[in-house]
Amino acid sequence: MVITGKVALVAGGTSGLGLAVAATLLAAGARVVVTGRSAERGAKALARLGDGASFVAGDISRPADVAAAVARARHDGGPHIAVCCAGATAAGRVVGRAGPLPLTEFERIVRVNLVGTFDLVRSTAAAMAGDGDGQEDPSADEERGVIVCTSSIAAYDGQQGQAAYAASKAGIAGMTLPLARDLARHRVRVVTVAPGLFDTPMLAGLPARARAALAAAAPHPGRLGRPEEFAALVRHIVENPMINGEVVRIDGAARLGSGH
């Protein structure tokens, strides 16, 4: 898809990977609607992004908030591109010192990461399909939309304490191909990116020794990923029509150990 002139919705676009994606798509000529839970972070994101960006406050685990973000993108003439970088993380062993992991905590992570991602996919896909009849047209090469989801290498290499997080991210990876097959008749692509360890605000507060240990997990390059590298992959996915129904790891060949 040619990005110039398109409208992109970036969930979780006020910081980290999502903010880098928003900046990259703006630079490529798109108008961008970013969402996030914090109005303060939203204002800071808009100050950084500048013209062509707008913000809608909302939580991806709330269907009404997702609908409001999609409505804003529709108002702007889209969405043609949707990128889900919103999510939550948590650590907790199945059986810890306080007993079994609370079921509510497992449900919370799955609701935010997996259910929230699916809600964004279904809502943006419906908007992209528009009034089309959904019938296959072999001669029509123009696509109506591209949706990029975010999984994690934890979907494959989950560590101790990551049962809920790994399950939610594995769910995203597992639904990618069925989503792409479902939406092919509407000429909408679905691709998932599974990032490794990236230098985002989530890791910024860690001690230097801990950050160095995480960086060493990647054989080459032996460092944390940069958000702009994630964003560059998202841009390539949007622009390359043959990437569809795939989960792409971006991790410097890192494989997570069992943890401690």
TrEMBL record:
Name recorded for this polypeptide: SDR family NAD(P)-dependent oxidoreductase
Annotated source species: Streptomyces broussonetiae
Keyword list, A-Z: Oxidoreductase
PANTHER family, sorted: 17-BETA-HYDROXYSTEROID DEHYDROGENASE 14-RELATED (PTHR43658:SF8), SHORT-CHAIN DEHYDROGENASE/REDUCTASE (PTHR43658)
Assigned protein family: Belongs to the short-chain dehydrogenases/reductases (SDR) family.
Top-rank taxon, per record: Bacteria
